[in-house]
Amino acid sequence: MKKAILALLCAGMIVLSGCYGSYGSTKWLHGAIGKINNKYAKSLVHFLATPVYLVCFGLVDFIFTNNYEFLTGSNPFAAGDSYFEKDEQGNSVAAVKNEDGSLSVQYTTAKGDTTNLTLLRDENIVRALDAEGNLVAQYEIEK
Question: What is the reported pTM?
């Protein structure tokens, strides 16, 4: 019985060793504590939250969400993450990650013209779809 359990644990370590994920709940907790302005209060809360970090990292992220992200390509904690950047010419791009793992992107030129795209990823292929769902571009990611 002990040999079977040891073999199962070893097999699990080998299989799950490639499941490096984004650690969404741990990052969320760290970001929430980071919003505290007083450095002494922040340090105290960070110290007192050690058990919560262990649960977020050890149980939630390591066991569940990172494996889910590895298998599906989408992390449930990442939904709602956003990105915005503006260049020197005044062009901007804004993106929000959706619950289904897709990415909604809005590109705005300096003149104010906007283009809305949805980015979908399947394995190593990223597809850009316009507002009507037509394929606009496709890109293969090298692994």
Answer: 0.46
User: Would you tell me how many other CB atoms lie within 10 Å of the CB of residue 68?
Assistant: 16
Q: Determine the Cα–Cα distance for residues 143 and 137; give it in Å rounded to an integer.
A: 19
Q: Is the pLDDT of residue 80 over 70?
A: no
Mean pLDDT of the residues in the chain: 78
First to last CA, the chain: 40
Report which secondary-structure segment, H or E, holds 122: strand 114-122
Nearest to 104 by CA among 123, 88, 84, 90: 84
H-type alpha helices, 17-123: 24-34, 39-48, 50-54, 66-72
- Strand-pair partners of 8: none
Q: How confident is the model at residue 123 (pLDDT cuts 50, 70, 90)?
A: confident
Residues 29 and 80: beta-carbon distance below 8 Å = no
Given a cut of 80, whether residue 59 has pLDDT beyond it is: no
